[in-house]
């Protein structure tokens, strides 16, 4: 069911991509295909839809809430965004656990990456080329502009089309009915708009890649390899369904890439570490197969990248409770690179598994003196405090963390656990209510907060806080339902 839902979402979004922006078209020799979106769908409305879509994705898709991978993806994504043009919204990058090669973007600067992309992108520039392409779809407002065009060609309103995509996430059959009613008109024109937008996203993505210091040749190289690999496949990956790769598109990206100066881009150890983590923990591979993959990678990559294979091997050993072997690898890696977040996170997990709680706390406390606000370190340290029975300290740290990162479910989950361990039932319910709200489960979130209010002392500040949050959730629920 999840796989089918994802395909519906991605195909619906792909079917909605449309015309490029004239001002950017002139700058990059693009044809003038239409007008800029915004007459009927504002940036603020896009943000509202994006937030709603993201909540449903959290509920319906296997989103990877891994602090280390999230940090890596966010750092890479924002490096690209800082070098993109026409950025009008904040961006959020997240990963979905799915072996299929795919990436997609939607309203509000949300960019999703399938974990399978790490299995096929050979280096960081190849991954960055896909992300830069998706960033361009957002900055050029392709989804909004295609919906405006579809609304002009059909009886459906823009709100109905946007709501249809929202419904497609929550209920595929209902959502498809709305989308089909809105896009059944001029299908050939829609296909042409999609192809035009794919080329525009490639061209703008190449420009972003170059400005951000990546290898622009990575885009045609990755696209060409995908095209060759799946040329005769009866079931191509979702990425080729939502982002078609006709020969002229590959040729165009290759010619464009050749017009940029050659850059000597060093291999990224962080990319290979992230890739090893995905293989070890999110690929679904058996331990012996994952270990074989690490060994083969060690032979194929330059010596400077060998720590990634050792790190991946250590994770597999750690997850299989082979602590002595994992410890030898991880402590050597950490000694050679003491500030590396991948190693600090894994060592923290190792020491917890070995019940060396003081060792874990010392490790993270020292790291926090250098980077006191780093989310990977903060969430790991809070977890160590929790496992050490230092519940009040953990709660204090997690309250600050959830205030700074209200959409991070890891913080709310740990806060709920800490309060449960202390017997603070009302606070536990409130924290779980926040997780439910992030998943658009409004009724249950409100129910949990109502229970929390009933448990709180009558007339207390705690009860007033719960009641105020209930009022906010009621407003958010009505706003969410109105979008459909």
UniProtKB/TrEMBL annotation:
Keywords: Hydrolase, Metal-binding, Metalloprotease, Periplasm, Protease, Signal, Zinc
Cofactor(s) recorded in Swiss-Prot or TrEMBL: Zn(2+)
Note accompanying the cofactor annotation: Binds 1 zinc ion per subunit.
Residue ranges of every copy of the Peptidase M48 domain listed in the record: 70-252
Active site: 134, 202
Subcellular location: Periplasm
GO-annotated molecular function: metalloendopeptidase activity; zinc ion binding
Annotated signal sequence range: 1-25
InterPro entries: Mito/Outer_Membr_Metalloprot, Peptidase_M48, Protease_BepA, TPR-like_helical_dom_sf
Entry superkingdom: Bacteria
GO cellular component, one term: periplasmic space
SUPFAM superfamilies: TPR-like (SSF48452)
Broadest EC class assigned to this enzyme: hydrolase
E.C. designation(s): 3.4.-.-
Residues the entry annotates as binding Zn(2+): 133, 137, 198
Function of the molecule: Functions as both a chaperone and a metalloprotease. Maintains the integrity of the outer membrane by promoting either the assembly or the elimination of outer membrane proteins, depending on their folding state.
HAMAP family documented for this protein: Protease_BepA (MF_00997)
Protein name: Putative beta-barrel assembly-enhancing protease
């Amino acid at each position: 069911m999840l796989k089918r839902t994802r395909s519906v979402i991605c195909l619906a979004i792909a079917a909605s991509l449309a015309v490029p922006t004239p001002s950017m078209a002139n700058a990059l020799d693009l044809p003038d295909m239409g007008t800029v979106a915004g007459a009927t769908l504002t940036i603020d409305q896009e943000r509202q839809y994006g937030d709603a879509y993201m909540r449903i994705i959290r509920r319906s898709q296997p989103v990877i809430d891994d602090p280390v991978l999230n940090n890596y993806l966010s750092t890479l994504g924002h490096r690209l965004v800082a070098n993109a043009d026409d950025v009008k919204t904040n961006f959020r990058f997240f990963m979905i656990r799915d072996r299929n090669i795919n990436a997609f973007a939607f309203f509000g600067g949300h960019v999703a990456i399938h974990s399978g992309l790490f299995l096929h992108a050979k280096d960081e520039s190849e991954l960055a080329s896909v992300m830069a392409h998706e960033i361009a779809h957002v900055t050029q407002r392709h989804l909004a502009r295609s919906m405006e065009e579809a609304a002009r060609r059909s009886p459906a309103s823009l709100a109905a089309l946007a709501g249809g995509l929202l419904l497609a996430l929550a209920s595929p059959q209902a959502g498809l009915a709305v989308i089909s009613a809105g896009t059944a008109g001029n299908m050939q024109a829609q296909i042409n708009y999609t192809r035009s937008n794919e080329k525009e996203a490639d061209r703008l993505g190449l420009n972003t890649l170059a400005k951000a210091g990546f290898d622009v040749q990575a885009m045609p190289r990755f696209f060409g390899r995908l095209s060759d690999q799946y040329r005769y496949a009866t079931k191509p990956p979702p990425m080729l369904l939502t982002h078609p790769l006709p020969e002229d598109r590959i040729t165009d990206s290759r010619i464009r890439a050749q017009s940029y100066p050659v850059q000597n881009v060093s291999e990224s150890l962080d990319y290979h570490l992230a890739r090893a983590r995905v293989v070890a923990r999110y690929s679904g591979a058996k331990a012996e197969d994952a270990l074989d993959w690490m060994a083969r990678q060690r032979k194929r990559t330059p010596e400077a990248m060998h720590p990634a294979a050792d790190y991946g091997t250590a994770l597999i050993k750690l997850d299989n409770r082979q602590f002595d072997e994992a410890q030898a690898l991880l402590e050597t890696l950490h000694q050679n690179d003491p500030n590396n977040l991948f190693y600090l996170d894994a060592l923290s997990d190792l020491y917890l598994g070995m019940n060396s709680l003081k060792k874990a706390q010392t490790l993270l406390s020292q790291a926090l003196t250098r980077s006191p606000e780093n989310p990977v370190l903060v969430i790991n340290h809070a977890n160590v405090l929790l496992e050490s029975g230092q519940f009040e300290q953990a709660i204090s740290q997690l309250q600050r963390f959830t205030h700074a990162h209200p959409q991070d479910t890891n913080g709310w989950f740990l806060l709920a656990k800490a309060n449960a361990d202390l017997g603070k039932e009302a606070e536990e319910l409130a924290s779980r209510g926040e997780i439910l709200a992030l998943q658009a489960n409004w009724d249950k979130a409100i129910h949990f907060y109502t229970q929390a209010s009933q448990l709180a002392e009558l007339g207390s500040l705690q009860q007033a806080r719960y009641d105020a949050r209930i009022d906010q959730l009621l407003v958010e629920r009505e706003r969410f339902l109105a979008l459909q």
